[in-house]
């Protein structure tokens, strides 16, 4: 699949897959300099590019495991969604889950982008839903007793 990328900043780095079988492509910070994120605060980190995803696909922005485990930095909304009709700059709302300030440097890998197909549902109101063994049980109801 080809995805058109438009650099909005000449220093922007295009997403890069870290290995042949990586599902997520690394996204890089395209900032004027270092950005310090205080504990329990969020900063919008620009990538410096916009993209054109094919119809029927979306970009899902996930945490990078190394950044999350070593620095406590991960997307504030857990998973960002880039719709196929969005043409603005891709940004990452990076949240500091730790107790100390963390610095994001220009060019640092800040998140990963997974491109996947999606289904658009046609929602219909119903008086009743079909029965199942599980029923309305949720939030751990299928675990061992």
TrEMBL record:
Residues 126-145 are annotated as: Disordered. Its EC number is 3.6.1.23. Residues 134-145 have a biased composition (Gly residues). It comes from Candidatus Coproplasma avicola. It is an enzyme of class 3 (hydrolase). Pathway: Pyrimidine metabolism; dUMP biosynthesis; dUMP from dCTP (dUTP route): step 2/2. GO terms for biological process: dUMP biosynthetic process; dUTP catabolic process. The keyword Metal-binding applies. It catalyses: dUTP + H2O = dUMP + diphosphate + H(+). One of its GO terms (molecular function) is magnesium ion binding. This enzyme is involved in nucleotide metabolism: it produces dUMP, the immediate precursor of thymidine nucleotides and it decreases the intracellular concentration of dUTP so that uracil cannot be incorporated into DNA. Substrate binds at residues 64-66, 77, 81-83. Keywords: Hydrolase, Magnesium, Metal-binding, Nucleotide metabolism. The keyword Magnesium applies. Belongs to the dUTPase family. Its cofactor is Mg(2+). This is Deoxyuridine 5'-triphosphate nucleotidohydrolase.
């Amino acid at each position: 699949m080809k995805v058109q990328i438009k650099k909005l900043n000449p220093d922007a780095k295009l997403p890069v897959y870290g290995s042949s079988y990586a599902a997520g492509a690394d996204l890089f910070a395209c900032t004027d300099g270092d950005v310090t994120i205080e504990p329990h605060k969020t900063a919008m980190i620009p990538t410096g590019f916009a993209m054109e995803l094919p119809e029927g696909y979306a970009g899902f922005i996930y945490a990078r495991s190394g950044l999350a485990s070593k620095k406590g930095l991960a997307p504030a909304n857990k998973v960002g969604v880039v719709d196929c009709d969005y043409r603005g700059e891709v940004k990452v709302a990076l949240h500091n889950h730790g107790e100390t300030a963390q610095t994001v440097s220009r060019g640092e890998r800040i998140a990963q982008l997974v491109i996947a197909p999606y289904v658009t549902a046609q929602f219909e109101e119903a008086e009743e839903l079909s029965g199942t063994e599980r029923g309305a049980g949720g939030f751990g109801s299928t675990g061992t007793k």
